[in-house]
């Protein structure tokens, strides 16, 4: 806790009035927020609310059209050097895993360290194997993604992102494409990561995970942040009608 | 007890049947199928009987050995034939080394090639030719044992294959007056040179054009699209005629020899089709692959080289090899321009008064040679596809 309090006035992500359109469709309508080093934020909301788009703007998979985003002191602009710099500091985990099917799990993880961080193959493999150990699938290193289960694939994807030694991890609905019995193995890994002090932004519908791990829950609807609060306040004392409705619907099952 | 029954292993039913059962199931399962089978057998018998009678009694196969040199190298001068053998030896050495290093497909090709040389040595050919043939076998064998197990050599051998390309051209051509003018290149030699140059150059060119057509920059996209659509809108024979007739008119000072002009024509033509094949593969790559590569921090070139192309090309191997085979056969169009490739040789032999009326024999022989090379490419492609099958979703 002490470490977190020290970091309180040291935001690693700053968003100022971020807007985004898909053609005429206004997806993000002025998001202003900041995230502290080591903060664990869970972003939830109905589908189409812009939550995925928002975290995708943070590593420029989507371009924001108005406002400013500053990641670890570097502003996201069209400058390719800045984009590549930021992408090295921001790891991302996708809903569909997006592993590279033609590479083994180990090669999936070592590709970035070898090509971007310019490590030697031996160094990269050492890191990759220890990361696979950390996500509990060291025995799957030399298999291909198609040969392992969805939960294992997602853990490889997390290891792949971690191999770049990012300062921030973005999770875009990491468990939505998984069979129910595999969700917990991925959440376990994310929980462990959260306890290690990683800055995490997680878009998810797993409210149990949110309540347990998050420092803050942000509720998105129609491109704006309607409500944000610590989990206890968010679940037990929601302020807005939309939030109340959402919570009652998600907690039903 | 119940648990045991649940996990008890049950073997799948066996599907193997005897020959008699197979015949009954596939050819004689109903009375009308039995009639059709009998009819087909009768037709087959008459067709084969006609062909075999012709092949063994009427056909004058003398024309093949008598013109064998022409079929192989055209009017390549006899006293310079060592150049061709040197080229073959360079390739044999690389083949043997590769067979030792990689085994599998290359090994099978090396064995097949040795078999061809062995059979050639048994044929009634000149003594020197026999020597060359046996030498080629020895070359393959020696380099096979040299290469075996030395995996560290692999990048060098790959480099060797790439380097062998210009080296062989120089060996075949020689220098100035003492060399062999390309106008004397002919027969199977010319066909192979045109095809190999076409394949080796049009492939990267096609990949490049396909990437350009997918570019975010409109200017690059338009240039590439215009090129591809223009070339695809014109028959190859027209392009070859234009290369032959128009280049000398538009660039009178520039003396580009005819073989080179045909190479350009075939390569640029094939590249347009190659580009469209590759584009099909590029479009099949899900957006998530690009995004994942970007998220890891790979730039455009790295994403293309390590993520996009390996997957895209793998998925279009059948189309690409189909294009290679088409190109190999299309080289025969240069015979119309006046080059004496394999088909050109066949035509010239038929027109030779000594061998009048032997079209069937000569064309059949040419067809068999075309088939062998095309089938080898097809076989290689199937093998590569199987080999790459693992790990692909």
Q: Can you describe this structure?
A:
The complex is a heterodimer of chains A (253) and B (393). Chain A is of the alpha/beta class and 253 residues long. Helix content of chain A is 40%, strand content 25%. Chain A has helices spanning 2-6, 51-57, 80-89, 105-115, 121-134, 150-162, 180-195, 207-213, 231-236, 241-251, and strands spanning 11-22, 25-36, 40-44, 66-71, 74-75, 90-93, 168-172, 199-203, 216-221, 224-229. In chain A, the strands form two sheets. A six-stranded mixed β-sheet of chain A has the order 6-7-8-3-9-10, with helices on both faces. In chain A, strands 2-1-4-5 form a four-stranded antiparallel β-sheet, covered by helices on one side. Chain A is globular, with a radius of gyration of 18 Å. Mean pLDDT of chain A is 91; it is low at 1-7. The model of chain B has no long low-confidence stretch (mean pLDDT 88). The radius of gyration of chain B is 26 Å and the shape is globular. The longest helix of chain B has 30 residues, at 359-388. Chain B contains 19 helices and no strands. Chain B has 393 residues and is an all-alpha fold. Chain B folds into three domains: 4-58, no CATH class; 77-179, no CATH class; 206-393, MetI-like fold (Orthogonal Bundle), CATH 1.10.3720.10. At the A-B interface, helix 3, strand 6, helix 4 and helix 6 of A face helix 14 and helix 15 of B.
Features:
heterodimer, A: about 250 residues, alpha/beta, six-stranded mixed β-sheet, globular, disordered N terminus, B: about 400 residues, mainly alpha, MetI-like fold, 19 helices
Task: Describe the structure in brief.
The complex is a heterodimer of chains A (253) and B (393). Chain A contains ten helices and ten strands.
CATH top level of the largest domain in chain B is Mainly Alpha
Strand order of the largest sheet of chain A: 6-7-8-3-9-10
From the N-terminal CA to the C-terminal CA of chain B, the straight-line distance is 40 Å
Indicate the overall shape of chain A: globular
Topology order of chain A in helix (H) and strand (E) letters: HEEEHEEHEHHHEHEHEEHH
Largest sheet of chain B: none
Task: Report the count of strand segments of chain A.
Answer: 10
Strand content of chain B: under 5%
Helix content of chain A: 25-40%
């Amino acid at each position: 806790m002490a470490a977190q309090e020290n970091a309180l006035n040291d935001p690693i992500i700053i968003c100022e009035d971020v807007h985004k359109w898909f053609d005429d469709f206004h997806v993000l309508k002025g998001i202003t927020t900041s995230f502290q080093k080591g903060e664990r934020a869970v972003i939830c909301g109905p589908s189409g609310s812009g939550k995925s788009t928002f975290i995708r703007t943070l590593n420029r998979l989507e371009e924001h059209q108005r406002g400013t985003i500053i990641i670890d002191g570097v502003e996201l602009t069209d400058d390719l050097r800045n984009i590549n710099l930021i992408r090295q500091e921001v790891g991302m985990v996708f809903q569909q895993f997006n592993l590279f099917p033609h590479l083994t799990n180990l090669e999936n993880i070592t590709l970035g360290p070898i090509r971007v961080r310019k490590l030697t193959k031996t160094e990269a493999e050492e890191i990759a194997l220890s990361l696979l150990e950390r996500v509990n699938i060291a025995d799957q290193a030399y298999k291909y993604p198609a040969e392992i289960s969805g939960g294992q694939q997602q853990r490889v994807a997390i290891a792949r992102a971690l191999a770049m030694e990012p300062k921030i991890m973005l999770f875009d609905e990491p468990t939505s494409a998984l069979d129910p019995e595999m969700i917990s193995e991925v959440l376990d890994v994310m929980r462990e990561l959260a306890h290690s002090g990683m800055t995490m932004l997680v878009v998810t519908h797993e409210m149990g995970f949110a309540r347990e791990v998050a420092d803050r829950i942000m509720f998105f609807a129609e491109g704006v942040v309607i409500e944000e609060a610590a989990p206890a306040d968010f679940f037990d004392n929601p302020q807005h009608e939309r939030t109340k409705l959402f919570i009652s619907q998600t907690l039903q099952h | 007890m119940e648990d045991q029954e649940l996990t008890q292993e049950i073997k799948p039913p066996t599907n193997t049947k005897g020959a008699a059962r197979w015949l009954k199931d596939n050819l004689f399962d109903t009375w009308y199928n039995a009639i059709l089978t009998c009819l087909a057998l009768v037709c087959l018998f008459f067709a084969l009987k006609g062909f075999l009678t012709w092949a063994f009694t009427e056909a004058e196969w003398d024309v093949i050995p008598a013109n064998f040199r022409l079929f192989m190298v055209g009017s390549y001068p006899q006293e310079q034939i060592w150049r061709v053998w040197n080229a073959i030896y360079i390739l044999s050495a690389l083949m043997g080394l590769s067979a030792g290093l990689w085994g599998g497909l290359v090994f099978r090709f090396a064995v097949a090639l040795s078999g061809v040389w062995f059979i050639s040595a048994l044929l009634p050919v000149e003594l020197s030719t026999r020597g060359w043939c046996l030498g080629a076998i020895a070359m393959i064998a020696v380099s096979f044992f040299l290469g075996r197990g030395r995996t560290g050599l692999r990048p060098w051998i790959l480099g060797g294959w790439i380097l062998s390309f210009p080296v062989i051209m120089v060996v075949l051509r020689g220098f100035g007056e003492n060399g062999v003018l390309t106008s004397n290149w002919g027969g199977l030699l010319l066909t192979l040179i045109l095809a190999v140059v076409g394949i080796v150059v049009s492939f990267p060119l096609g990949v490049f054009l396909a990437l350009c057509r997918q570019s975010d920059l409109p200017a690059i996209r338009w240039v590439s699209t215009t090129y591809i659509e223009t070339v695809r809108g014109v028959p190859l024979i027209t392009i070859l005629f234009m290369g032959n007739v128009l280049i000398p008119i538009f660039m009178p000072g520039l003396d580009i020899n005819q073989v080179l002009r045909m190479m350009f024509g075939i390569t640029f033509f094939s590249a347009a089709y190659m580009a469209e094949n590759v584009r099909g593969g590029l479009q099949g790559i899900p957006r998530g692959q690009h995004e994942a590569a970007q998220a890891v921090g790979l730039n455009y070139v790295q994403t293309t080289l390590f993520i996009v192309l390996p997957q895209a090309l793998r998925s279009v191997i059948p189309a690409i090899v189909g294009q290679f085979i088409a190109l190999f056969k299309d080289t025969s169009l240069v015979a119309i321009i006046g080059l004496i490739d394999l088909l050109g040789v066949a035509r010239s032999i038929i027109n030779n008064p000594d061998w009048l009326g032997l079209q069937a024999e000569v064309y059949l022989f040419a067809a068999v040679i075309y088939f062998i090379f095309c089938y080898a490419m097809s076989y290689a492609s199937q093998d590569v596809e199987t080999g790459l099958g693992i790990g692909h979703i």
